[in-house]
Design goal:
With 615 residues, the protein is an alpha+beta fold. 33% of the residues lie in helices and 27% in strands. It has five domains: 166 residues, P-loop containing nucleotide triphosphate hydrolases (Rossmann fold, 3-Layer(aba) Sandwich), CATH 3.40.50; 81 residues, Elongation Factor Tu (Ef-tu), domain 3, CATH 2.40.30; 99 residues, Beta Barrel (Elongation Factor Tu (Ef-tu), domain 3); 63 residues, Winged helix-like DNA-binding domain superfamily/Winged helix DNA-binding domain (Arc Repressor Mutant, subunit A, Orthogonal Bundle); 116 residues, Arc Repressor Mutant, subunit A (Orthogonal Bundle), CATH 1.10.10. It starts with a strand and ends in a 5-residue tail after the last strand.
Length: 615
Amino acid sequence: MILGTAGHIDHGKTSLVRALTGVDTDRLPEEKRRGITIDLGFAPLRFPDGTTVGVVDVPGHEAFVRTMLAGASGIDIGLLVIAADEGPMPQTREHLAILELLHVPRLIVALTKADLVEEEWLGLVTADVAALLADTPFHDAPIIAASAQDGRGLDAIRAAITTAIAASREPKGEGDLFRLPIDRVFTVKGTGTVVTGTVWTGQLAVDDTVRLLPGARTARVRGLHVHGAPVRRIARGQRAAIALAGLDADDLERGATLVTSGAWEQSLVLRADVHLLPGAPELRPRTRVRFHLGTADVGARIVAAAGPVGAGSPRAARVVLDEPIAARGGDRFVLRSASPLTTIGGGAVTDSQASRRTRPMPAVDLGDADRLALLAREAGWQGLSHAAIPLRIGVSPSRIQELTARTGGITRLGERWYDRAVLEDARARLVRQVEAFLAQHPLATGAARSETMSRLRMGQELFDATVAELVRAGKLLASGAELAPPRWAPALSQQQAHSTHELVAALDAAGVEPPSVSELEARFGQQVLPLLRHLERGGQLVQVEDGRFYTPAAVRLLLERMEAAMAGGRELAPTDLREVLGVSRKFLIPFLEYCDRRGYTIRQGNARAWRGVKA
């Protein structure tokens, strides 16, 4: 469980954390010198029952809001700190908006420095804070007067945290994909590179292999620490330090993310539901913003389907990022204007792997099943990868079976999901493609599977499944590598029948040295080859080599001459066989190779012998 502070500068966040935990989270010399928090600080808050809450202390200065965002992402409980002697200030309001945009589940308000004000003033400030919270999801958050100096209210804050913990108990990440956004990187002598962060989802163990996103670098987990103590495994909701083998500290920075599953892909274009705060300027497609997700902070453009995005109701939009990040469906993000730097809105990712040409989702707040059906439909013949569903939709892999079962209109083939209307279209177009091919090639016994698949630009998995379904339905016949409609048979036209007689006559006249296919095409036209193959299937011709056909009588004559010359086991070289067969070398070698393939002869070095097969 992670608790994160929020609030204006000098309102006592770090002092309150120190009073609650005994840890001074200001670790940098500059923080000590200036007396303000500059970077994220971390501390364990331990309870008597053994529960330990990780505390993230954030800076309150307006110049460090991007750092505050890195710390606020992934927290379970917000601790909004407001000084009783000043009341809500600009960063109070901005930090509160950020907690709301990130959908932080629970909030506790601490009115610090209560020892410096009178009870009447404290009552006025409490009323102001209640009014500030009234129109937010945190309208019922406890408001506790406290002091780090005299200890007032500290027990009440601990009790409120305990109550929030009891209401926020969640599984420890069993079955989900591991992800940890990195918020610190450093080197420890004798250990090497160490990164820290909050485990957003899943679990990680010592000796596991992690991937660094963006990019494709990997490392081995050398060691794990939680609140300074070594552990063998970390899980969702824990602050952790991870020692990595195989990566230098220079390879890493805040904003990167550690993952384990190979299904993770970096994202450059997202689809999202975007909500702008009241008073925020309109976002047009060319407007530059800063996009904050996890610890990542990158430039982006927001493109809606119809016109600019304005304040008010959420709008479905496409987010085009300047740099890749690790994102997942359901992730919350914050938007800040580029100039002046101020928080203007945020939203939720609805698809983490959109393409640059993909339009926004058609409606805001689509349910998981509706988004899955839409993604399958958009994937078309490519299908939606089963492994991508947890990331694009944002559900645990353990929930996929339940989700797909209640998503109408989709079917799984192998490792991909398809829209059933897409499958119907694939079946219809495959049949039409086969029929169209055979209409152009009426002498073919069928359309080649490989060529049909290539012409349709259909993946192997979908093609095979579609063919199998059409064969089962009796709409196609599959014979070897060819496809044909039921009862298909090659048929000659009257003109083609006349041409076949001419071809056979020409080859018969040529005897044992027949013309090649190209020579026949020059004489009879380009339709020669299909006619020759038709004649071959009917036993009227024999293909001896690529591009050359013989009459059966010519082949029989050559084989009889060869068998007679090799009688008694005699072995003959090609030069001898040339005289025996009475053909030139151009015809001799291909015919000898034909005899070898058919098993009439066997090579013995440079010579050949008859195998005893009757010609």
